Amino acid sequence: MTDVPVDVVDVVEELQPGDTALIYLAGPGHTPGAYAPVDVIDVVDVLDDVQPGDTALVYLAGPAPGLVAGTVESVVAPGRKRPAHHITFTTPVTDDPGSAQLSVTSHVTPESACVFIRAYRVNQSRAERRARQAIVPGADDDAAAAYPSAPRVAAEPNIVSGVIGSVVPWGLTWPGHLISYTTPVIDDGSYQFPVNRTSAYAFISAYRARAT
User: Fold this and answer.
1) Which residue from 205, 208, 204 is spatially nearest to 40, judged by alpha carbons?
2) pTM of the model
3) Which of 107, 117, 161, 194 is 20 to 30 Å from 6 at the Cα level?
4) Coil, strand, or helix at residue 121?
5) Dihedral sign (CA 97, 181, 117, 201)
C-alpha cells in the first residue's frame, strides 16, 4: 500500500462509522461457509495494474482528507502532458458530479490531490468454479430477508464499497454483523448487508483516514 495516512481495518468488530468498507457479494449459487472472499478476490497494489471493473480505493488529500472508492470504468496511464493516471469511475465517488474522473498518483507528493491506495478484483474464473461447487443455492436468503434493504441475491459476483453509517452485531444463530452504509451502494437501493467472512455478503476490509 502507498505511503498515505490510512489505517487498514481487517476485523469487522473494529469498524467505526465513517470507515470506508468493502463487501464481496457472492452472487447466485453461494454455499455459506464454503469459501471466503480471499479465495476469489485479487488484490491490486500497483496503480499500473488497475483494470476496468476493479474496485479502486483513493485517498483525497487537502484540508478535509478522506477516502473514496468506486468501480473503475477506464484508466489511462501518464503521458507527456499527463503527469498522473486518469481514472474514470462508473459513477461519481463524491457528491461532486465531476468526481467520476480523477487524476491519481501512486505516491504522496506535495502536488498530490488523489493518491491510489489499493484495488480489488473479482477473479471471475475462480468465482465461477466456486459457484459450480455450491450445493445450497440461495442459502443466505433468510439473513437477507430480515432486512428489505439487503438484496436477496446479487445478480453476479461483485464488490461494493461505501462509507459506513453503522455496524452492529446481528443474529443469535447466525454470527454476523449488520453493516449499514450512509447511501445505497448498488443500483437497487441496497445499503444494509448482514455480513460475516464466508456468507453471500462477506466483509473484505475497511480503511480509515488518519487525522493529519
Assistant:
1) 204
2) 0.84
3) 194
4) strand
5) negative
In angstroms, the CA 183 to CA 2 distance is: 27
Task: Scan for cell 455480513, then name that residue.
Answer: 195
Residue type, 162: G
Paired strand residues for 70: 56
Output the nine-digit C-alpha cell for 81: 502532458
- Cell triple for 166: 453503522
Q: Where residue 63 falls among pLDDT bands split at 50, 70, 90?
A: confident
**pLDDT at residue 61 is higher than 70:** yes
Angle subtended at Cα 132 by Cα 128 and Cα 135, rounded to the nearest 5 degrees: 135
Grid look-up 470504468 returns: 73
Residue 204's nearest CA partner among 3, 2, 42, 34 is 42
